[in-house]
Design a protein that fits this description.
alpha/beta; TIM Barrel; two-stranded antiparallel sheet; 12 strands
Length: 329
């Protein structure tokens, strides 16, 4: 390659049109998934204090948010439920009339073009806030599998397009796949939270989902943030058990893991830009420390550049508006 002054990389950066022409990584609203928090009632919209712009809503209000997302071209929504009651086993998770199941039915009826993904976990539903059944002070992995499978089947029965187990129990993909198939849902895909790391970036989510553990933490079942090779093992295991798609979570602090998983598999790869990532950008932008819109878009581009096909982000609607404006410019 010739060197300066014959070769000048700045030639292709001079105008917006030139930059668009040679851009290597693109974002499309259809690649974005919007998380939504649903609870019972009518006309309910309760702001989440640590997540500006994010609310807990009843099904009717959730439909308003989903219609807006669909009108902007957002690809899908990911549903989390806040039950009216909690118990030791999280039994409301597989109640066919619980908020998530009601929301799925309403979405498939009123916004049929939007992909509906449901989070399969027990932490929102248990009175102790952990992701499974407690035995002798610890989460009992094997006893939890049957309950997760019951929850996934209930979501599929309501009409979920994709079920997404986030609990990090060993063997849960196989248990869910077997149960879905046995109950006639062979065509329901599983998006596995294959590499979900424990860490400090989930705090705002726990407020939104009302899922803070009442004792201890989740480091005994979520991954150690130091381990990238282990993430690849987890991905391989979930693929072998029948996962149709895999996920890395959180996204921003684990871009290297996203890239390594991308090299590992040709399956669709999702990455979750979690609540802490979202709230940090929002907080800095509110204080005038950063350009919030540019920080949002750069953070999403980084996740795409690392290799993610799908980005789950609370910025989905805002980012879709920016992308629409760029297309119209």
């Amino acid at each position: 390659m010739p060197s300066f002054p014959q070769f000048r990389p700045r030639r292709l950066r001079r105008t917006a049109a030139l930059r668009r022409l040679v851009r290597e990584t693109w974002l499309n609203p259809a690649q974005l998934v919007l998380p939504l928090f649903v609870r019972s009632g009518t006309g309910v919209r309760e702001p989440v204090g640590s997540m500006p712009g994010v609310d807990q809503t009843s099904v009717d209000e959730l439909l308003r948010d989903a219609r807006e997302a669909a009108s902007l071209g957002v690809g899908g929504v990911l549903l989390f439920g806040i039950p009216d009651r909690k118990d030791a086993t999280g039994s409301e998770a597989w109640n066919d009339d619980a908020p998530v199941q009601q929301a799925v039915r309403a979405l498939k009826r009123d916004v049929p073009g939007l992909v509906v993904i449901t989070d399969v976990c027990l932490c929102e539903y248990t009175d102790h806030g952990h992701c499974g059944v407690i035995k002798d002070g610890d989460v009992d992995n094997d006893a939890t599998l049957e309950l997760l499978a019951r929850e996934a089947v209930s979501h599929a029965r309501a009409g979920a397009d994709i079920v997404a187990p986030s609990d990090m129990m060993d063997g849960r993909v196989l248990a869910i796949r077997s149960s879905l198939d046995m109950h006639g849902f062979k065509n329901t895909p599983i998006l596995s939270y294959a590499a979900k790391f424990a860490g400090p970036f989930y705090g705002p989510f726990r407020e939104a989902a009302e899922s803070t553990p009442q004792f201890g933490d989740r480091r005994a079942y979520q991954m150690d943030s130091a381990n990238a090779r282990e993430a690849l093992r987890e991905v391989r295991l979930d693929i072998d058990e029948g996962a149709d798609m895999v996920m890395v979570k959180p996204a921003g602090p684990f871009l290297d893991v996203i890239a390594r998983v991308r090299d590992e598999t040709t399956l669709p790869l999702a990455a979750y830009q979690v609540s802490g990532e979202y709230s940090m950008i929002q907080a800095a932008a509110e204080r005038g420390w950063i350009d919030g819109e540019r920080a949002m878009m750069d953070s999403l581009l980084a996740i795409r550049r690392a290799g993610a096909d799908i980005i789950i982000t609370y910025f989905a609607r805002q980012a879709a508006r920016v992308l629409r404006q760029e297309q119209q410019a």
